């Protein structure tokens, strides 16, 4: 029999760790002196300790290891648990490779432009939203502002008249042009909470659901609408270089906006629903 200090030296496992394993029921001492409280271990317990360390090296938590050892699982179940751990590690490796690629893309952009871009892009999940929407067309980008003002006037009037609660920011959707590529097909949306009577809606307004988006590329623009193109260039470049493709209408969310206000204080979020490309964009 070995006292805990000797067993620690033999196994190269700290006394603190051995005591912790004892508390968790992972590796109980072979005996404990009733008077001194000294823990004693047997030589054949080294095999159990090595099994604990091997499972720990595979990334299993001590709680998981305790469950495996306590239940004395058959070989098939043990293999199943380790396969799950294998899948987790493969997913972590893939995510790490994606992160490495993003860092590489950042360095490439920095080397080209010799400055840090103000447009950080993230990918996030966006929940579904019930909205009232007014759709319209602008003949060109110069007419877009007046078109959107009219559409949002319509939507805001509906919110007021039907006495529902606005729960989100004004959101513009940009649809692909169908008949005329020079025209901009847009929708002005506001999320609301409450019951709305569709029969009372004006012709150009409708109730709709903006669908949930699992992967939404997003960046924040500060300042005037005149410089939004710079933000668009940044997010579209990021989408392309990081192996994504656009899968739906993009959105502009007016986080800080006041009609007629100082545009230098405007804050706009630009969003694109995206999905991973099946092939490397460099191929």
Notes on the structure:
This protein has seven helices and 13 strands. It has 283 residues and is α+β, with helices and mostly antiparallel strands. It folds into three domains: 2-72, Multidrug-efflux Transporter Regulator, Chain: A, Domain 2 (Orthogonal Bundle), CATH 1.10.1660.10; 73-112; 122-276, Multidrug-efflux Transporter 1 Regulator Bmrr, Chain A (Alpha-Beta Barrel). Strands 4, 5, 6, 7, 8, 9, 10, 11, 12 and 13 form a ten-stranded antiparallel sheet that branches.
Query: What class, by secondary structure content?
Result: alpha+beta
Major pleated sheet: 10 strands, antiparallel
Could you give me the name of the CATH homologous superfamily of the largest domain?
Regulatory factor, effector binding domain
Helix content: 40-55%
Assigned CATH class of the largest domain: Alpha Beta
Tell how many strands the DSSP assignment holds.
13
Given as residue ranges, the uncertain stretches (5+ residues, pLDDT < 50) are: none
Number of domains: 3
- What is the succession of H and E elements? EHHEEHHHEEHEEEEEHEEE
What's the topology here?
Elements: E1 2-3, H1 4-11, H2 15-24, E2 31-32, E3 39-41, H3 45-57, H4 62-71, H5 75-113, E4 122-126, E5 129-138, H6 141-161, E6 165-166, E7 171-175, E8 184-193, E9 205-210, E10 213-222, H7 228-241, E11 244-246, E12 250-256, E13 267-276
Antiparallel strand pairs: 1-3, 2-3, 4-10, 5-8, 5-9, 6-8, 7-8, 7-12, 10-13, 11-13, 12-13
Index terms:
283 residues; alpha+beta; Multidrug-efflux Transporter Regulator, Chain: A, Domain 2; Multidrug-efflux Transporter 1 Regulator Bmrr, Chain A; 3 domains; 3-stranded antiparallel sheet; 7 helices
């Amino acid at each position: 029999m070995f006292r805990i200090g000797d067993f620690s030296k033999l196994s190269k496992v700290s006394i603190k760790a051995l005591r912790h394993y004892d508390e968790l029921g992972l590796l109980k001492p072979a005996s404990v002196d009733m008077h001194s409280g000294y823990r004693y271990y047997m030589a054949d317990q080294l095999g159990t300790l090595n099994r604990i360390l091997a499972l720990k090296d595979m990334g299993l938590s001590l709680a998981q290891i305790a469950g495996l050892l306590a239940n004395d699982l058959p070989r098939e179940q043990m293999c199943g648990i380790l396969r799950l751990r294998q899948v987790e590690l493969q997913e972590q490796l893939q995510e790490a490779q994606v992160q490495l690629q993003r860092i590489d893309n950042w360095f490439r952009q920095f080397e080209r432009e010799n400055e840090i871009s103000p447009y950080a892009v993230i990918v996030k999940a966006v929940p579904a939203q019930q909205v009232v929407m007014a759709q319209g067309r602008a003949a060109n980008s110069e007419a877009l502002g007046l078109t959107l003002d009219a559409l949002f006037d319509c939507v805001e009037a509906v919110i007021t008249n039907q006495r529902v609660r606005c729960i989100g920011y004004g959101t513009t959707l940009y649809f692909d042009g169908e008949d005329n590529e020079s025209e901009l097909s847009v929708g002005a949306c506001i999320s609301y909470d409450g019951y709305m009577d569709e029969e009372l809606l004006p012709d150009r307004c409708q109730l709709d659901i903006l669908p949930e988006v699992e992967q939404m590329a997003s960046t924040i623009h500060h300042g005037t609408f005149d410089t939004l193109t710079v933000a668009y260039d940044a997010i579209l470049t990021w989408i392309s270089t990081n192996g994504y493709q656009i899968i739906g209408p993009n959105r502009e969310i007016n986080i800080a906006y006041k009609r007629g206000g100082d545009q230098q204080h405007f804050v706009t979020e630009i969003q694109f629903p995206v999905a991973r490309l099946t092939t490397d964009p460099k191929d």
